[in-house]
Write a structure and sequence with these properties.
This protein has 351 residues and is mostly beta strands. The protein folds into 2 domains: 3-9 and 223-339, no CATH class; 29-220, no CATH class. It has 3 helices and 26 strands. Strands 3, 4, 6, 8, 10, 11, 13, 14 and 18 form a 9-stranded parallel β-sheet that branches. The relative contact order is 0.13.
Length: 351
Amino acid sequence: MKRLLILAIIALSMLVSVSAEMDYNNSDYYGVINEPGTYVLSEDIISPKWGGILINTSNVVLDGDNHHIICNNGSEETYGVDIYPDGHPIENITIKNAIFKNWTSAIYSDDDSKNVTIRNCEFENNTYFLDSYGIEIYFYLNTIHENQSAESYAPLASPKLVYTYGGTEYTYRLGNYYYGYEGTDTEDEGVYSGVYELDSTTDLYALIKTPENYIITETLYPEVDSEYGALITDIFALTSDPENYVITDAPVTTTPTTTTRSGGSGRSYDSDISDEIDSKVIKNFVSSAVVIFGNEIDQQYAEELRERIQNAENYKISGNAVIVGGPLSNGFAREYNDQFEMPISNDYPGE
């Protein structure tokens, strides 16, 4: 099957970094974050309530400073960190250096939350260490103890990183460390070459050693086209095989949908999306995107994704887009091809 170019239109915003205090007067949560800023825990949290910390605003860094966030409540549904905006989208959330224990969902991320990063955390004795309904999430360098599950519409991985492992510098992506997991094949970059399967997601770059063995020196993001505001992301195959996914280097915007708090599917797609797309990640992106073809042959491939498609001629991209076709037939492919990790050509369109 052809590989397709994926373009995402995003709005960039600066992360506010100020010292901030949580609101501790909520009846359901131990603490609530209502204002942008950096929040650093000074002690362990043992919450007698069904919620630990609620985040309902953008531009937040929650740094656990290696403290515990522990549930001490017997409710059927409990949430360690609840990224749950109240009727409005929020973005740019980072959770790091925290240890989560005894929650139903250690971290919950609603589909109205965008650009969420969770790293260098530890999860023990939770039902779900992650319960996420968005595809705009980076989850990496975390330590996962046994007998926990995860639900996520995006595979669990980092953006592209420059890091040192075993005394050698690499540029690659990293996943997470799972106690009790030993893959059969390894790669020099310090990850298992196979796919680690969880109940409702996958980790494509499961770590061979614990996270402290990977020293990050740089996080790489692609350049933004200043004229169109288009962020050039990676190419991935439209296939249900997780090993063929390539994580995009930045989040993409999804259409608003309705989710449930009980772990149900909660996701709706445009009615013309092909039933042949098994991957939730890809189906969700195609549902939010315009599918643009270059010629009659490419039109046939485009129609395998959805019924409503767009000819590239005289068209201007103004949102998420899937570009079908090589650089000779599709002007958008020609314009952006040299900025992709895996450039395509008409002679080599991919699998």
